[in-house]
Amino acid sequence: MRPTPTELITQVRRVLRDVIEPELSSGYARARLAEVRAVLAQVDWDNAGLHLMTHTTALRDALGDLRAWAHADEQRRAHFGQIDLPEPDAADFAGWNHWHSHYTGVVTALIDPLEDWLRAHPDDADGAALRHKLLTLSAC
Amino acid sequence: MSRTATDSVETVRQRLRAFLAERTGDAGLTVSGLRRSGTGSSRENWPFDARWVDNGTAVHRRLLLRRDPPSSVVDTGRATEFALLKALAATPVPAPVAHWLDDRGDDLLRPSMIVDRHPGRADRAVLRPDKNPLGLTRAQQTELARNLCDLLASVHAVDLTATGLRNVLPTPQPDPATAELDRWERTLAENEQEPQPALRWALRWLRDHVPPPPEREVLVHGDFRPANVLVESGRVQVLLDWELAHLGDPLDDLGWYCAPVYEREHFLPGWSREDFLRRYTELTGLQIDPEALLFWQVLAMFRLAVIALQAVRVFCSGTSDRPAAPATGLARLLVATVSDRSGKASCARHRPS
Fold first, then answer.
1. pTM of this structure
2. Quick one: which of A138, A42, A11 has its CA closest to B324?
């Protein structure tokens, strides 16, 4: 099999540590190199695109659930208004990145209406569950 | 290419020598050992030695040039910080001794300040038994942790009127918590390259849980933690990095110090968060409201997440040499805290992964 991006980055990190770092006399350069190595290790290079697509789809699905819940009741429909959720039509990282930004924008716009609704209806278990799902997805 | 790379050590040395020669009145002043250190997250640190003659007396000073980076992660006027350090010189708070200021960077290429270089080492892991970078005994680590609490109490005991600090730092309006929220919401908006629902949700939670104003406003350091304290032989020497200092609520610093993200760095077996808060109350008489403390803990994590966002933005724009990746762990911590809608959650329940 061909080497994965992570396997390549792992070896780049090794060269930075074993070959480059010993040659550096500047404390500033050594500190920046340590940060470079840390960031290279922090990113999931193999799955960055897959994660973006999966997360975008999950956001879209959760927002669809919230829209269905909001529009199933006249009072909620009036409170939340129209929620537009176009289907993503992405074919590459940039495309999914665009849609990810779009859906996170929709989530952000719904925070205040949802919080206000749940404050006025503290026993709304379905609304609370949707809030929990969106909030959890927001931290990914 | 960032300006960092274009300002060579020699260029900075020449500018620095001319700057100091003019201010000391000695055209023969020398600058030696100038280098850019690896420390300093929001300012560049350039240690050096200067020698000059003052009224016939040879002077040798160990100094530190603190320069704004091309893109500053925090935004505090250099002149304000300089005036603050001058005011603190008359207090028991061990702050850096500030000598000269180039507020606009006319002489030193960027806004800069020159302060005494003090002995000691600042290390964020100094209290961690597993890392122990200064080689302290467990008893020394516990004593140092207690002394840090004493140090914070001394900062909060500074007389704002007698020192003139009320003329240096603005009074928070309409109250300390709202003023800080407003400030960091603005910073979030400036750095939000794509919508950040986790941070916006945390912001909503914070707006819903603003605590009442403190009985007494104090000098808030704004970044109080071991990483900003010079330690020599196990003893506190100097409290560094005052660029986030402001007037406000003492719980501001306490929430920052007790934020769950710092749990492993600030507390150790035999010195818990509760021990820290108990001693602080003994020293200051301030009774700590757990709900208000939770607000400031959440705000601390919110600030850290915004700073991380800003660090990613300036690095990706090529104006910072400090690599940074998105801080999703912080966002998860924030979400775990605010997901309890009752607002009764305790930050102590949520530990960093």
1. 0.92
2. A42
